[in-house]
Design goal:
Strand content of chain B: 15-25%
Order of helices and strands of chain A: HHHHHHHHHHHEHEEEH
CATH superfamily of the largest domain in chain A: Ribonuclease III domain
Strand order of the largest sheet of chain A: 2-3-4
Number of domains of chain A: 2
Number of strands of chain A: 4
CATH topology of the largest domain in chain A: Ribonuclease iii, N-terminal Endonuclease Domain, Chain A
Shape of chain B: elongated
Order of helices and strands of chain B: HEEHHEEEH
Structural class of chain B: alpha+beta
CATH superfamily of one domain in chain B: Glutaredoxin
Strand order of the largest sheet of chain B: 3-2-4-5
Helix content of chain B: 25-40%
CATH class of the largest domain in chain A: Mainly Alpha
Shape of chain A: elongated
Largest sheet of chain A: 3 strands, antiparallel
Low-confidence stretches of chain A: 1-39, 324-351
Strand content of chain A: 5-15%
Oligomer: heterodimer
Radius of gyration of chain B: 23 Å
Helix content of chain A: 40-55%
Largest sheet of chain B: 4 strands, mixed
Mean pLDDT of chain B: 87
Structural class of chain A: mainly alpha
Number of helices of chain B: 4
CATH architecture of the largest domain in chain A: Orthogonal Bundle
Chain lengths: 351, 133
């Protein structure tokens, strides 16, 4: 880097003073990439307990619970203050210290990058909206709320629900009304359900991101990746449910044109009770002699739609066997596209 | 609602404990005992000799030991699903106390359900079965 600067400066005929200034600037530049083995992170400013009023709010066993949580997620924190900071939400005692918002933003970006990369590499044919839906399925606040609950994060996190803010407003109202003010208190907000407090999905979801940020401080990028593999990507998801296909027969025709296959035709493979009220047709979508997909329905038209949908689904959900060995390139094999396997059953609602 | 939004709503991530990572459902065990009374004597021995080893073997469980004078000893466990389970251990020998500790540690926290049907199925009813589907 410095050598390159020096060369270009000489080529431009720069003076010695300019040269030395440029090399100094290049040397002072921060490193753009952090390597996994040699991670250099800025030290974070830890939470400073702001007097007895703050510490009095922290429940007993907080540190023991935090240590148990660290054991539960399988991370050995050398600096426990990093974990403690990730467990304190800004609503806990506003304006009194450093909370988990910075860690949360870091973890949000890291987890989204890791999950998106995993889906992008594993399912190379998946449409963009399905990737987006799947990432949201894994990382939405509601999804991470349930995950955080299964790890005991909700019992550990320090935060204040919005209902407590309402209590503060009522106190203020009583104080003002004693002084003769005409301040009108708002109506009390309804809790979401009996065992859920207002805003807990947002708070626990974002704090889950903060845990990932704390793991990044402890173990680097690979640590967050292991954490995501272990807890987020291991959950059972119906990937096909996130795919939306409008007018499947047209889309299938377009895809066949794109991959230089013959125009799809639909043929009845089996049928029963054609003239009755409970008729059933099994229709196959063929490109030449190649069977692309099978659809079962009560009418031929709907069965064709289902067959086209199943063919597209089988194409979209084509999975790379070993994503780690995949070399991303434009020369993805077209010959392997034709879905040889037929779906066991069509789970599509027929309407 | 657009079809993409409908598809987004349909997709869910289901947690299966044990795939990817196993999380111990028990997160806290509390032992209440009396320092003087006779019904707590084996529990006191257990706390003196074995509780540290138990805590070392189960790092994901918070162990709390409380002195409650003039009361019979009991063990209470709390679980991640919000439930708790208590067992009285008055006059019980140390082996029995340890057995109950292990039972509470291994418990799921879900209530005991009597299985009425000998066969359970997750698939659809056979009444509307069609051979083609």
């Amino acid at each position: 880097m410095i050598g390159a600067v020096r060369l270009s400066a000489r080529a431009l005929g720069a003076s010695a003073a300019q040269l030395s200034r440029q090399t100094a600037v290049a040397a002072a530049m921060p490193r753009a990439h952090y390597s996994a083995n040699n991670t250099e992170l800025p030290s974070i400013s830890h939470l400073e307990f702001d007097g007895p009023r703050f510490t009095a709010q922290i429940p007993e066993f907080f540190e023991a619970r935090a240590a148990a949580f660290a054991a539960r997620i399988g991370v050995d924190f050398s600096d426990k203050k990093t974990l403690h900071q990730a467990l304190i939400h800004p609503s806990f005692s506003p304006g009194r210290g450093n909370y988990n918002d910075r860690l949360s933003y870091l973890g949000y970006s890291l987890l989204h990058a890791i999950v998106t990369e995993h889906i992008y590499v594993t399912y190379p044919n998946l449409p963009t909206h399905a990737i987006s839906n799947l990432v949201d399925t894994h990382l939405s606040n509601e999804s991470l709320y349930h995950l955080g609950k299964s790890l005991g994060l909700d019992q550990l996190l320090l935060w204040k629900p919005a209902n407590d803010t309402y209590a503060l407003i009522i106190d203020e109202h009583q104080r003002l009304s004693a002084n003769g003010s005409d301040f009108v208190a708002p109506a009390e907000p309804e809790p979401v359900s009996k065992d859920r407090r207002r805003g807990d999905a947002n708070v626990i979801g974002r704090s889950f991101h903060a845990i990932a940020g704390a793991i990044y401080h402890e173990q680097g990028h690979q640590g967050v990746r292991n954490f995501a593999n272990k807890f987020i990507l291991s959950r059972v998801t119906d990937i096909g449910a996130g795919i939306s296909i409008r007018n499947p027969r047209l889309v299938l025709e377009a895809f066949c044109k794109k991959y230089e296959l013959e125009t799809p035709t639909y043929q009845i493979i089996r049928e029963s009770g054609r003239a009755s009220h409970r008729s059933m047709f099994m229709v196959g979508a063929f490109s030449g002699k190649r069977l692309l997909g099978i659809g079962n329905a009560r009418s031929i038209d709907v069965a064709q739609i289902v067959a086209a949908k199943n063919a597209l689904r089988a194409h979209f959900l084509e999975q790379v066997q070993n994503p780690l060995q995949l070399e991303l390139g434009p020369d993805a094999s077209i010959e392997e596209w034709a879905p040889a396997r037929t779906p066991a059953s069509d789970s599509l609602p027929i309407s | 609602m657009s079809s993409i939004a409908a598809a987004k709503k349909a997709a869910t991530a289901v947690i299966k404990n044990g795939t990817g990572a196993f999380v111990q459902p028990c997160h806290k065990i509390m032992i209440n005992f009396c320092k003087h009374s006779g019904s707590s004597r084996f529990v006191r021995n257990y706390i003196n000799e074995h509780i540290v080893e138990f805590a070392r073997q189960n790092p994901s469980i918070v162990i709390a030991v409380n002195h409650r004078p003039c009361a019979h000893p009991f063990i209470r466990a709390e679980y991640l699903n919000g439930s708790q389970k208590s067992i009285g251990v008055k006059n019980l020998p140390e082996e029995k106390v340890h057995e109950f500790m292990m039972f509470l540690r291994s418990h799921n926290g879900s209530p005991m359900v009597k299985i009425q049907q000998p066969i359970m199925s997750t698939s659809h009813n056979r009444r509307h079965f069609n051979a083609l589907l």
